[in-house]
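Question (not urgent): is this output format expected?
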Amino acid sequence: MRSLQEAILAALSLSSMLVSRGHEAAVVGGAVRDLLLSRRAPEADLATSAPMEEILDIWPGSPVLGRPPAATVIVLSRGCRIDVSTFQGKDLEEDLGRRDLTINAMAMVPDGTIVDPWGGRSDLAGRLLRFTGDPVERLIADPLRAVRLARFASELHGFRVDQGSLKICRGFASRVAAMPLPRIGREVLHALEGDLPAFLETLEQGGILDPILPRLKGLSSSLRDTLFSRVRNACALTADPAVRAATLLADEGTTATGTLSAWNWPKSLSREISALVDNLTVALDGGDVRTWARLFRSRGADWIGKLSLLGFIYSLNSEPDTGIWAQRRVGSIPFIIRLQSFGKRITGEEVMALTGLESGPEIGRIMEDLDEAVALGEIRSREDALKWVSSAGGGHSRKSFSFPNPG
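Got this back:
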């Protein structure tokens, strides 16, 4: 396992190379903060007085993100990603002054000395999150910093948000609403990994919750309280991002898919969340055996466990209550166990070969009937299933045919 300092040490080594060429260079931002908090940083940022051309001369062929003057060169060192950029401003102090929060506005020079012109160490000690310098200037430069303030409140346990910074955020709600949705989505995705309730509460205190989740606009305080309670329960019960996100977005119903797409979240995660939201009523109402069989085949047993957990989270705050939810959960478990224990499923090609039917809706119906029979325990082996399919090809369906129990 890598040490806490691995990324810092790799970045300091690169900074020494730049200093040897007559340039200023320092590790900046989150890696320095995380080192002081004894948190592992997987990567580090390096700021230097060297122009972009010389950075690329030292590390030729390195990928470049963005455009000058904000371009970043990605260098791999000791297995760590180091993002190297030219100072934003005339020197290191001005570069640090343009960063979002004081705790992210510290630097470390090659000999290990901490450079802290904005009080970051003091704020770390006081567990305080506040903007660097003039909050208005920071938010004019990038209104999304209001959302990042909330995200750090979720990420750094026990930190409090500076009230002056929150007050300034309230005047930037319209600008936050106009930010590109993928940037907003990236911050929400990060917040899922931390204290999501703290993220939402900070957004609300800063007057920017509605721009992030427009569906909340106009909701009564009781409905907001219910949502916050569900999110708190979800975060207490699981760290799974799909369940947490589905809890947050479930009331959006079919529009949740559009929100996830606009946020540009990873497609596999978005599909998982959308499926949870779309099938919440199954978890709450119980669902019939055919529905559980279909969901098992399309999503798998692990996903069904997440759906059931989402139903439990909802049952804590609304009808049906947890007792009814538990009864329905107990009723569905045998179906899932039988399907999971059955082994290799009969394929569509096998169904066509056994029945003489061509590919089409009838093949799908037979396979769904077969899954239903397996879930009900009427078919217990692959051999039985093949015989069942042969009979199905003769016009039988699950409702009119049940293979005898072995014995």
